[in-house]
Amino acid sequence: MEGEGLMQSGGRKRERPARIGPGLVLVWLMVATGWSAGLATAAQGSPAGGAGDAARGRSLFNGKGICFYCHGLDAYPDRLPQLAQDTASFVARLDPKPPHLREPKGLKVTGDKERFRLIREGHVGTGMFPDASLSDQDIHDLLAYLATLRSSSETKDESRR
Ligand code: HEC
After folding, report:
1. Looking at residue 64, what DSSP letter applies?
2. Which CATH number fits domain 47-161: 1.10.760, 1.10.10, 3.30.9, 3.30.70?
3. Which residues does a 6 A CB cutoff place in the pocket of ligand 1?
4. Using the 8-state DSSP alphabet, how is residue 74 labeled?
5. Model confidence over 51-92: pLDDT tens digits?
6. Is 125 left (phi over 0), alpha (psi -120 to 50) or beta?
């Protein structure tokens, strides 16, 4: 709909050549729809609230959420799955590397609100892409799972939530 508008105005204004090819429009549509979807769900659910189910979070982590592609099966970095060659080399080249989610000391994100946002929106500037297929509840479940990981190896660091 808006894509058509773009093309039309591009065609009318002769001084600016309309260089909007179908590919670019497609990319733009993906970005636009992904964005509004993310914004809509972010407005509905409050990231802070909602109890997560850690067991469900674990299966999301090792499944639909594909977190294990980069963070390893059950969040053990040395337990990466067998991926297609190009995916595997993409993961191997990530810089910064995916952090060890069971090692609270090496983690930078300190609150679930921020974690929620980074899982929903992806880590800008890193290899962690946004996952629009996860619902708010999915993310709460992931957060509950991540919390059990941190506390299982945690020594004593009360500042980490
Ligand atoms: C494409 C690889 C990739 C995938 C898939 C991925 N991550 Fe990440 N993740 C990263 C990288 C790389 C970082 C580190 C970014 C940085 O240091 O700035 C990161 C950081 C994080 C952090 C912040 C750690 C900290 O420093 O406190 C959390 C939490 C996290 N990921 C959880 C997840 C979850 C949950 C999923 C699945 C929904 C997921 N990740 C999927 C690569 C990935």
Report:
1. T
2. 1.10.760
3. 61, 65-67, 69-71, 91, 94, 96, 98-99, 101, 107-109, 115, 118-119, 123, 126-128, 131, 142, 146
4. G
5. 899 999 999 999 999 899 999 999 999 999 999 999 899 888
6. left
Ligand 1 nearest-atom number relative to CA 129? 1
HSE value, Cβ hemisphere, 13 Å, CA-based, for 147 = 19
Residue ranges of domains in the chain: 1-44, 47-161
> Using 50, 70 and 90 to split pLDDT, how confident is the model at 129?
low
In sequence order, which residues have a C-beta less than 8 Å from that of residue 96 and are 6 or more positions away? 126
d(Cα 57, Cα 79) in Å, to the nearest integer?
Answer: 18
User: Of all protein residues, whose CA lies closest to atom 9 belonging to ligand 1?
Assistant: 98
**Token digits of residue 89:** 């080399």
3-class SS of residue 32: helix
Cα 62 to chain center, whole Å? 14
At 98, list the tokens: 């995916």
- Residue 73's CB is within 10 A of a number of other CB atoms, namely 15
What does the alpha-carbon distance between residue 60 and residue 57 come to, in Å, rounded to a whole number? 5
CB 87 within 8 A of CB 68: no
